[in-house]
Amino acid sequence: MSDARVTLAPVTDVLPAPAATSAALEVLHRVFGFESFRGRQGEVVDAVIAGGDAVVLMPTGAGKSVCFQIPALVRRGTGLVVSPLIALMHDQVDALRAVGVRAEFLNSTQSISERQEVERALLAGEVDLVYIAPERLSNDAVRGLLDRVAAGPGLSVFAIDEAHCVSQWGHDFRPDYLALADLVGRWPGVPTMALTATATDATHKELTSRLHLENAKHVVASFDRPNIQYRIVPKDDPKQQLLKLIQDEHKGDAGIVYALSRNAVEQTAAWLAARGVDAIPYHAGLDARIRAANQSRFLRDDGVVVVATIAFGMGIDKPDVRFVAHIDVPKSVEGYYQETGRAGRDGLPATAWLAYGLQDVVQQRRFIDQSVGDAAHKRKQTANLESMLALCETVGCRRRQLLAYFDQPTDHDCGNCDTCLVPVETWDGSVAAQKLLSTIVRLQRERNQRFGAGQIVDILRGKRTPRVEQHQHDELSVFGVGADISERGWRSVLRQLIAQGVVQVADDYGTLGLGALGPAVLKGEHPVRLRHDLERSSSGAGSKRAAPVAADLDESSHELFEKLRAWRAGQAKEQGVPAYVVFGDATLRALATERPQDRAALSGISGIGAAKLERYGDDVLSILAA
Ligand code: ADP
Ligand code: MG
Which CATH number fits domain 228-420: 3.50.50.60, 3.40.50.300, 3.40.50.10860, 3.20.20.80? Predict the structure, then answer.
């Protein structure tokens, strides 16, 4: 890190001018059609308009874009936005143009003449916001161009979106982001902003120091996403469970299904498609053209389900993803939170659903064992997995546990997760645990053998399989001591004992050994509480269900909503933009329930600013009047 950096005045020295607030609000109303700032947006916007730097940690869907877009529109000059995903820049720019903002992008997909036109417009001061790929900023010619813009029509703000990409320890590290550090402070008087949805303190610290933003205003918002309903269910037949979730609760909705392997991605997508779901695969092994086409279909068409590996999702701004489903357990709570966070960015109800089973635990342990990396790295991965398993097995409120993980403890249960909606019953599993541990111990002591879950459950249940007979395991004193618990029951017990550290997956083959707490449990010194895996409907819907966006509307509003949706699809197709660029679901919902009858009333609907009123006002009014 260079010591010769320019330190900007701490923002706390600059009182936000009331004039800035009203100019910001005016732009928020007129351009975006939003009534008020959400959460801490206003605070950030004021600080940046006053000339200060800002580091902004807000969850996905909180509205980080507004935090830099408004200052860019209020301050003199062009706002420079670094965004890592070229494939998505186009949509970001389209969405801005749709509200009348003069937006451009600069990336490697452009022809020379397109680039020259953007450069001309920049130097002429005709651009409100320019999106740029990080690698372009290492280019001397581009830096020179920006210097001339700064000296001429001006740069209003330098915003680094997805700023966690600068973190070398994160999942999304981009070397090009490191080079951004020497641009910070290059244009005196131009506020720098770093924005990310990453919630961990470690990433916050790392990006702050790498980007020299120690003196910036730091805004860490609440990471709660109250509209997301968290549900984690025992895995029986994940494809069937998933299909049930989609059919019962998310028919025709856009969704993302995460699976661990490319193979599982392709199979699941094909299986769903054969059952009438509009499902398509996405993973890094697909041909680049197919990948781009599938991503674009997901973004543009209504109600597409993409089945993907975790390679999919960062920077996807689609606001109306109604569910995110995991059919394999994620490697960490951080990953789970980021992936589920892609649901419900528009603030409307959405579901985060995970099916989780014994096999997941065994497989993840195996991945860690086999991974290259030193002991410290493996310990970190193990700790990550353990936190994730604890979230899966908790009998308490999932949201409380999630927020506590991110150091944002709350003192009340959320009422919108499965454990709140259908409280989990627990039972004293101490004796069952002792039976299971004795089996492991006897195999080791008497036979010098280690086995995996299948064989141990067969021994406990007293099942004379060929393998049991081959090893004469029916002669063990523990043979059949657990016949009172079903096979499914034992798998549930075992899964929970592994999660609690009572049993350990000992090696690559998934054989079992005693965990750290094993000896104490065997001696009766540590009681074990287990949850009853409810034999509820297999998608775990419980008694209440997440409402599809329009399901709770009365019949006539629902009909109107569907009419508006069909009209929107036509508009989107005609213009070649995603449907949400025309209007978001939240706006359609408000139109269908409030039914404004004239332009004045129409402009009071959230999401309808001046440009959209002009463009679509007559169409919408005539649909509403029909
Ligand atoms: P983030 O980048 O934080 O994930 P976005 O900037 O993509 O979130 O915004 C998420 C959604 O919230 C968008 O659909 C956006 O239009 C909407 N939004 C942002 N700010 C407001 C606001 N003040 N009022 C209403 N909707 C808002
Ligand atoms: Mg964003």
Answer: 3.40.50.300
pLDDT of residue 361: 86
Helix intervals (H) in 1-103: 18-27, 41-49, 64-74, 86-98
- Angstrom distances, CA of residue 573 to CA of 95, 581, 582, 618: 14, 11, 10, 19
* Residue 60 Cα: closest atom of ligand 1: 4
- Residues of the chain predicted below pLDDT 50: 1-19, 536-537, 541-544, 546
Q: How far is the C-alpha of 78 from the C-alpha of 56, rounded, in Å?
A: 20
Give the model confidence (pLDDT) of 592-616 as tens digits: 999 999 999 999 999 999 999 999 9
Question: What are 444's two structure tokens?
Answer: 């080791």
| pLDDT at 539 (0 to 100) | 59
pLDDT at residue 377, as a whole number: 82
Among 29, 40, 66, residue to substitute to test ligand 1 (most atoms within 8 Å of Cβ): 66
Residue 535: predicted pLDDT = 53
State which fold the 426-532 domain adopts.
Answer: Arc Repressor Mutant, subunit A (1.10.10)
Q: CB atoms < 10 A from the CB of 307, how many?
A: 30
Q: What torsion, rounded to 10 degrees, do the Cα atoms 40, 46, 48, 54 define?
A: -30
Closest residue by CA, ligand 1 atom 26? 34
pTM of the model: 0.83
| Residue entry with tokens 């490319």 | 262
Q: So what's the pLDDT on residue 251?
A: 92
**Which one, of 63, 71, 68, lies nearest residue 81 by Cα?**
68
Residues lining ligand 1, judged by CB closer than 6 Å?
34, 37-38, 41, 58, 60-66, 197, 317, 319, 345-346, 584, 606
84-228-161 Cα angle (round to 5): 15
Identify the pLDDT of residue 612. 93
